[in-house]
Structures are given as C-alpha cells and as structure tokens.
Amino acid sequence: MAQTVRVRKREKSGNSLIELFMIVAVALGLALGIQAFLVKPFRIPSESMVPTLEVSQRVLVDRVSLRVGDPDRGDIMVFKPPAGADSSECGANHPEDQPCPTHTKAKSDTNFIKRVVGVPGDRLSVRRGRVYINGKRQAEPFISPSTDCQVCNLPKEVKIPADHYYMMGDNRGGSSDSRDWGPVPRDNMIGKAFATYWPPGKWGGL
Question: Could you confirm whether 146 is annotated as catalytic?
Fold first, then answer.
C-alpha cells in the first residue's frame, strides 16, 4: 500500500512538471508570436529622438498597421536603415546644400527609430534645422531645433521616390538620419511606435 502511494506521488509530481513545462512553453510561444506579428518592445539607443524620447526609454511598436496602410508624416517608426547609415554614407553624389537623395543599396542589420518627415512624392528641404515640404515650413512643436549643425541647412530640395520615406530625429542637431544617408524603403519598415512604458513616469501614448 505504501509503495502504491509513493508511485502515485511520483506520477503526480511528474505530471506537475510536464504541466509546468507546457505552460512555460505556451507562454514563451505566445510572447514570441506577439513580438513577431503584433507588438514588439524597443529600447531607445541614442539621443537622436530627444526631447520626445530619452536614451534607454522603452516603447511599444505596432507591427500590424503596416499590413493595412502606409506610414504617415509625423509617425515615429522603427526600421532597418540603409547600410550607409552605419557610416553616414549617401548612395549618390549630391550638392552640399541638398539632403541625401538616394540610399545605398544594402540594408543595415541595426534597428533605428526616427520620425517620418517626408512621404513619397514630397519635395523636401531643411532650413535652420526645420523641414520644408513643397516649399512650406512644417509645424514641428516636438523637435529640439538647431541652426548650426552640418546638415541643418540644406535648402536645395530633394524629391522623395515612390515607396520611400524621409526619416529624421527630433534632436535636429544630434541625429544622423536621412539627411546624411537618404530615404528609407517601405520594405525596411518594422512598425510604428505608439506608446512608451518605461520608465514608469514616462507611460503614455506617442
């Protein structure tokens, strides 16, 4: 009788371990699936989006909306930049007073986060750190402006190609962005940042 009880206890213990393993496996699978297809967390790696986003702040990135629509001007996006972004290299020779018109062909392995400032077909220039679209200065209350950085005064317009987006950091004097390495293909987009969740005092939508 005692031996039977011990066997049953071992069987119960074994079943509990299997159940725990299955729960952990399912939870992990769901977490990976959510990150792959729905929402992905992202840590801000640099000061390029100050004052909107601080270094080490964490945001949630929507991976669904790109399946049903295109990025809009003003959206904060996570994306793979052209490989030229790793060395601030433009994909074409261009006048010094013009933003980079063409990206390098390869894609970087690094994830970037910047704001969409120009969409396909826009004619874009930069004056005193501020974006002009089709000759009209854009309302940008979210930026930290700068007038004296190397790419803060680019008055000669560039036209953004089809299926490409011009990306710039809100920290206009401290961001390496499309001004240096050109527009980003739509296929390089990962998702739109829609909320910040860390640190706790920074919770909220974007």
Answer: no
